Fold this sequence. Notes:
354 residues; Isopropylmalate Dehydrogenase; 2 domains
Amino acid sequence: MPKIALLPGDGIGPEVAAAAVRVLDAVADDLTYDEQLVGGASIDANGSALTDAAMAAIEQSDAVLLAAVGGPKWDSTDPDAVRPEQGLFRLRADLGLFANLRPVRPVPALLDASPLKRELVEGTDMLIVRELTGGLYFGERGRRGDSAYDTCIYSVAEIERIARVAFKAARTRVTSVDKANVLESSRLWREVVTRLAAEEFPEVELEHQLVDSCAMRLVAEPRSFDVILTENMFGDILSDEASMLTGSLGMLPTASLGAGERSGDERGARGSRPSMFEPVHGSAPDIAGRGVANPLGMILSAAMLLRHGLGREEAAAAVESAVDRALERGVRPRDLGGSANTAETTEAVLRELK
């Protein structure tokens, strides 16, 4: 029986995690769950954002389902303070999760929920491929006197492996995003991506775009993108911007994959490490405990777990179709302008699965 490491985390995390488990149980009744603390919940209980024992248990799972971490309770400007996000960074680093996949496909029923005009958003179907274990977020950092520094470093090997993921996922075109007019790390990024495209993927069209120009193009002509390839921080920002094409940050799922991604017959092979699946949204502490959070991003993340983590394409497609149909029939969580609470939204998806 496949074992899922369930990490509810903080804020609305436990609420949306419970919703996702209900949906998973409806399409895959052979799954077992091993719940572990992460983020602020782990800090409160253990003084650490992720304990060694929890990490060891997670590494023995077949896939990881994470809800959300963080909140103002644990915010601090103290550079030595323990932060919830440290648990997330450790998960990515220890599991080798270098590739973050963020699909952006506005549901037809929600086209009018986007702040952009329907004619701009309609037909958008892009994938953002974000490098996840390098760059500013993992470089050397610190303070010297009255100065602070963060270091952005990328190696040729790191760029090649994430670029291969993007090119393999592309239908026709990869847009590689950088800041090569200013940053030396971006100049290396552009150089490596250009060479790799020519040597290994000549059938895929490659275009380079500066990150500020890409940010503008995302809202001016989102349909023009197929696959966006980008480094860690740029991908973090651009994917949150792209989420508004769907009408809400609460709608976007993500998959974080490593070299040992499991699927099909490879599932359960302890020589590989599990992939992790989570919604783009944060912990939303302002609505935590009220039962009004939108669970759809978490449910769609569970669908990505079925597809990429367990190799169950049919079950994944069933969940995604059920979400689409529930929205077509009119269910609207509060962040999409409606009044449906977490339970009502989850029940609407379950009805479509039945």
